[in-house]
Write a structure and sequence with these properties.
110 residues, alpha+beta, Nuclear Transport Factor 2, Chain: A, four-stranded antiparallel β-sheet, 2 helices, 29% strand, globular
């Protein structure tokens, strides 16, 4: 799992990760490299939408400032994006999107 925090999200768009793929006993840097490569491969296989597309979907479904994004395993082994969004009213909203389709899995106030 990798956290992408604004304003660095555009620099890390290609650096999404899947936490379950990290090997035990490896250093933090090794975990990070493995996660980045797993996410890159998932993107190349079209198993996940690019972060730019996910951010556009999030802007439509929960307008506000994205403050955190995680790519992780969801139910039944499918990948999902978990986003935390600072809404215009000052509240934090949680949005879960299916990583492959962009479908909304959950939207709620934190």
């Amino acid at each position: 799992m990798i956290l992408i925090r604004h304003p660095f999200r555009s620099l890390l768009a290609a650096a999404l990760a899947v936490s379950a793929l990290a090997a035990t006993g490896a250093t933090a840097d090794e975990h990070k490299k493995q996660n980045h490569e797993a996410a890159r491969q998932a993107l190349l296989r079209k198993e996940v939408l690019p972060l730019t597309r996910i951010l556009a979907i999030a802007a439509q479904r929960a307008p506000g400032e994205v403050i955190e994004v995680e790519l992780e395993q969801g139910d039944h082994g499918r990948l999902k994006y978990d986003l935390k969004i600072l809404a215009r009213n000052g509240r934090i909203r949680e949005l879960e999107l299916d990583a492959k389709t962009g479908a909304t899995l959950k939207l709620e106030d934190d």
